[in-house]
Design goal:
333 residues; 10 strands; binds NADPH dihydro-nicotinamide-adenine-dinucleotide phosphate
């Protein structure tokens, strides 16, 4: 048997890390995405090592001796937390990313797949008219949206670092760029969460307390959402088959861009009871839209012959709501 791959998943306790664990070890998963006999997987949480610290990062790598890394750990938050903490998002994420990449290089990790975000892309305002749809080639064409510039610049730098590690040392370090993610094990904090988990929590409380479900903002912005289990499959595939420093957008197609109002209605439907009454005065909308192309993703998956289908949005949302309701007492609220 070949030497086993030792794969360290940073951010293993978060939304995407938990989805990877589920997909890899669930017997209902298609064989192509399940853990292989020559793979040893380690999922780490922040209590094991604070990746902002070079010493703790080195100790962690010394402990597990990874040959491969899926780098998910990040200071993550919704629009409101980003808007009020741009410096923290910038500094923490720069430190985390630099420590993970530098320690990977120093310990001869063969492959690193880091997780970026579509926030890295330039803001539409003032950008060239042909900016949309966003493609992998457009990351550095203009400044990101001002609301979360700290997080966005830290994430953009990972792409720069990957290219520098490739150029200077021939390293196979690359990144995925997912759109908005949702699924079980999300962060449901009412102030600091992303849009879907925030809506789910509000709707749940309105049901429980017999009050009106009042989503904030206009409901008009458009987004593409990806189910965490689908994203997990793409990470697993990338780890095994994707050997290119160029990043890969991981998104549903442009045709599946939906308004926040649509999402609100689907959340209401998934809870099967409550009705929403919009509160336009509360909260900011953020960027109006940032449609991304998944043409490259479809092309590389097709070329590798893998059978990959996105979970239909309503099914994914229902599974996420069911998980949240069942796990309310222990979920990150
Ligand atoms: P979560 O907030 O669910 O999880 C974040 C993970 O990072 C947790 O495991 C957390 O550990 C870990 N972490 C945070 N700070 C540190 C630290 N200083 N040292 C070590 N570990 C740390 O995030 P997601 O799963 O949603 O995000 C995964 C990746 O996906 C991130 O890189 C994020 O930027 C990216 N992304 C997320 C999107 C989304 O919609 N959620 C959209 C696009 C990209 P612990 O919980 O133990 O503290």
């Amino acid at each position: 048997m070949s030497t086993p791959k030792v794969i360290l998943v940073t951010g293993g306790s978060g939304l995407v890390g938990q989805a990877m664990r589920h997909v890899l070890f669930d017997e209902k998963t298609e064989l192509a995405f399940r853990a292989q006999p020559d793979e040893v997987w380690h999922f780490m949480a922040s209590k094991e090592a604070d990746l902002r610290s070079p010493e703790e990062t080195e100790k962690l790598f010394e402990k597990y001796k990874p040959t491969h890394v899926v780098h998910l750990a990040a200071l993550v938050g919704g629009l409101f937390k980003n808007m009020s903490h741009n410096l923290s998002f910038l500094r923490d994420n720069i430190l985390i990313n630099d420590n993970v990449l530098n320690t990977s290089h120093k310990t001869n990790v063969q492959k690193v797949i880091s997780c970026l975000s579509t926030c890295v892309f330039p803001d539409g305002a003032g950008a060239p008219p042909d900016l949309y749809p966003l493609t992998e080639a457009k990351i550095h064409l203009g400044p990101p949206h001002s609301s979360n510039f700290g997080y966005s610049h830290a994430k953009r730098l990972v792409d720069v670092q990957n290219r520098a590690y490739k150029e200077q040392y021939g390293r196979n370090y690359t990144s995925a760029i997912p759109t908005n993610i949702f699924g079980p094990h999300d962060n449901y904090d009412l102030r600091d969460s992303h849009v879907i988990p925030g809506l789910m929590h509000k709707c749940y409380l309105a049901e429980k307390n017999g009050t009106v479900f009042q989503p904030a903002g206009s409901g008009r912005p458009l987004r593409q959402f990806i189910y965490s289990h689908d994203l997990a499959k793409v990470f697993i595939w990338m780890l095994r088959h994707y050997d290119d420093v160029e990043p890969l957008i991981v998104s549903v197609s442009e045709e599946q861009e939906v308004s926040i109002e649509y999402v609100v209605n689907k959340v209401v439907a998934a809870f099967q009871k409550n009705r929403a009454a919009r509160n336009e005065a509360a909260g900011s909308d953020g960027q109006f839209r940032k449609p991304t192309s998944n043409a490259k993703l479809r092309a590389v998956l097709e070329k590798s012959g893998v059978n990959f289908e996105f979970t239909p949005f309503e099914q994914a949302l229902q599974e996420s709501v069911d998980w949240f309701v069942e796990n309310y007492e222990t979920a990150r609220t």
